[in-house]
Amino acid sequence: MNKKIVVNTSPLIAWEKMQALDLVGKLPFDFICPPQVQAEILAGAAKGYSVSFPSWLKVVRLAVPLTPLALANLDAGEAAVIELALEQNISLVCLDEIKGRRAALASGLQIIGSLGLLGKIKTLGLVSEIRSLVEKAQDSGIYYDTKLVGEFLHKLGE
């Protein structure tokens, strides 16, 4: 059985811009997201953004609606990802935004970002290099800290 991971919107957008959604879907995880993430993706597509909802991502509803406190410092997608992980006893979340990452850490969750999962794609041998994927994302407006990208690529031998 694969390990479950709850995914937020921004990694999905980044992978789409890298044209790497299919690669991510091949990783040995059961990917889930709350309806709020699906709604954000579909709203972007309706506005004409080049973004799609991958077939490998399962939508799981929250048992309890988000509270105003949960939404005070996070957007609905981030808050719902954290809440869903806690409700479902899933220890791993995929978040890129710093506020969401801090809240997830404070909630006792493990975090991986869009780049971290790209690294897993390479270490599993699904691709021989990922620099071009990261550059595609950056060229299309996805921001990653320059130092972080340098260290990340260096660790992967690129």
Walk me through this protein's architecture:
The chain is α/β, with parallel strands linked by helices and 158 residues long. The chain has one domain: 5'-nuclease (Rossmann fold), CATH 3.40.50.1010. It is 51% helix and 12% strand. It has nine helices and five strands. The chain has a five-stranded parallel beta sheet. The longest helix is centred in the first third of the chain and has 12 residues. The protein is globular, with a radius of gyration of 15 Å.
Tags for this entry?
158 residues; alpha/beta; five-stranded parallel beta sheet; 9 helices
Q: Please name the fourth-level CATH homologous superfamily.
A: 5'-nuclease
Largest sheet features? 5 strands, parallel
Number of DSSP-assigned strands: 5
In CATH's first tier, which class applies?
Answer: Alpha Beta
- The main sheet orders its strands as 3-2-1-4-5
CATH topology: Rossmann fold
Q: Please tell me the total number of domains.
A: 1
How much β-strand is present in the residues? 5-15%
Low-pLDDT segments, ≥5 res: none
Per CATH, which architecture? Answer: 3-Layer(aba) Sandwich
Structural class: alpha/beta
